[in-house]
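Closing statement on the LLP sub-project.
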Amino acid sequence: MEFRPKGVPWKALPDTARIGPGGLEVGGVSLVELAGEFGTPLFVLCEETFRSRLRRYLAAFGEGNVFYAAKAFICRSTAALVAEEGAGMDVVSAGELATALAAGFPAARILLHGNNKSAQELAAGADAGVGAVVVDAWQDIERLEELGSARGRRLPVLVRVAPGVEADTHSYVNTGKEGSKFGFPLAEGMAMEAVGRVLSSPHLELLGLHAHIGSQILSLEPYSRLVEVMLSLAEETAAALGWSPPILDYGGGLGIPYTGEEDVPSIEELAAVLKGGTAAEAGRRGLPEPRVAVEPGRSVVGNAMVTVYTVGVVKRVAGGRRYAAVDGGMSENIRPMLYGARYTALVAERPEQAEEEFHVAGRHCESGDVLVDGVLLPRDLSPGEHLVTPATGAYGYSMASNYNRVPRPAVVSVAGGRARVVVRRETVEDLLRLDAPAGVGGGWKW
Ligand code: LLP
């Protein structure tokens, strides 16, 4: 076993994180050097961690049953990597679909999701030949029927069910609960009706059912309940319609460690509950055993990335509170402000030094722009040093904005001691390019 000093949040960091002569390294590359070469804030993606999580999912669920959720993070090279590993992809917009296709991702391995897909998005999916569209509303069914009829072929679909299973997570990401905007509710027989409707359509082919109960789920118990609910629905569809689902897609949701202190079920434990539970429940009800699919996002890419910042201002305010202000904030990581998500931070140059409490503030014009609300950092932390926040791979870059007209960071992929830019840093010129040209004449005096 290699020596891993205590006090460093190893569980939250990429698998390749090490302490080298220049401080923290990922993928064999020093984060301080990366910051020097590519600037900050910088997202650093560890290819090995990303691949290893995907491989574990593929090993546990079987090829053809793992659809990486692009919304967590996607760019062309990540799409290519997912394709290379043999996984599928879950996309929710024309933009995500186009990114996958631009990378040469095989359309047949794509699932098209969304609670309000436009007619154009559905047509783009149908024309690309996606593996399935996950229907979420009656309009999806109607529009797909038109598309299938016009193209003279049956379009493959999954029906998304709102299973009414509550996962113990933030209410904003608790998608499976009753009253959710997603899917056809079990209540009032709506899911059954949707299944019946698709089955009777000459233009659609029903491959199975889908459900997603939420995100950053830290207990397997809601998944067991989900399995029961879905198999009980399968029993009803078998009895009423003579159809039981060949595929059950249980969505994503597995939580990850952010601060290194969380206890998180493993991918293999999740597979045991979903696959084992499905086989057992199907057997008990005398149903054929469905194929079990999943759509992990966060648990693939979350711990595969870190963000590197430069410390600009270090200040002590009245009352003794100390702030370390970095050159990013809510524009590239909105999660602390939106969900109360807790992160940790360490200094790239001296990752083991944790002495005094700091609040890591962003650079945006809002007092709520605090990335880490209390973390131990070196007492003499200085401007110019680099702060690293682990576990920023999921819903970080993908939810980034240009608030305060701050350009979005670059994403650099590291592996085997080499780094390459996979998303270039945005510039102010990029932002200005979208504006209609305008100028104000005349002198304006202060
Ligand atoms: N499948 C469906 C249908 C989903 O809606 C989602 C996430 C996933 C799969 C992937 O879930 P994951 O494995 O990543 O938990 N922005 C929020 C998370 C929103 C999740 C939305 N749906 C956050 O930053 O926590």
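The mean pLDDT is 95. With this model delivered, the sub-project is considered complete and its resources will be redirected to Aim 3.
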